[in-house]
Structures are given as structure tokens and as C-alpha cells.
Design goal:
InterPro entries: P-loop_NTPase (IPR027417). By secondary structure, the chain is α/β, with parallel strands linked by helices. Helices cover 45% and strands 16% of the residues. Helix 1 packs across helix 5.
Length: 117
Amino acid sequence: MRIVLVGPCGSGKTTIAERLREHGVDAVAVGQEHSIIRDLWRRPEPDLVVFLDASLSVIRERRGDDWPEWLYCVELERLADARANADLVIDTGRHTVEAVVQRVLALARDRARNEQR
């Protein structure tokens, strides 16, 4: 099962993808926020799409206080299609890395069980 992670810069895509791969999951962090191609997130042919959300204040904590609001807004605009089609939207500012990983793994297990039926 391939899981694609999308979200604004600093939302945790790389970290979560690495942790999921440690669990044997094919996880791909897609830089949709950098692309004007609306469906770039579809290109890796995901079985699950996970949108990692984070507020501007959380992004600034992670990236620096000078992270521009205009850039954050542009990224959210570019991510709108991916968010609308996500199987799971989770706020990484409200959950630990481990909690996010466990929620994604639980969703993947549930999806795999449902596909076997």
C-alpha cells in the first residue's frame, strides 16, 4: 500500500514518511505545495492520501518566526485539491509524531481489511 503525504512546508511530511517507512510502509512525501500542478499528489498513484495540516503559528515554530504568511496562503491554495481528496486530514500541531504515525497506520490497516472483504 502506497501512502502519499501532502501538506504545507513544515507540516511534518518528511518526518512522518520516514517513520512510516520504518514500519515497512511505502510512504511518499509529495511537495505539492511547491507545484502549480493541482494533481501532482496523484502521480505516485497513492492508495491513501494523508493531508498533514499545521497552522501558520506551528509552521513558524518549526521554520522560524519570519516564515511569510503570504507563502503559507499560497501553499494552502496549491494544496486545496489534495486536501479535498485526502483520506485523512490530521493537524500535526496538535499531535505528536508517534500519534500521527499510529493514526495513519490504523487507517492503512482498516483500508487493507476492507479491501480483502
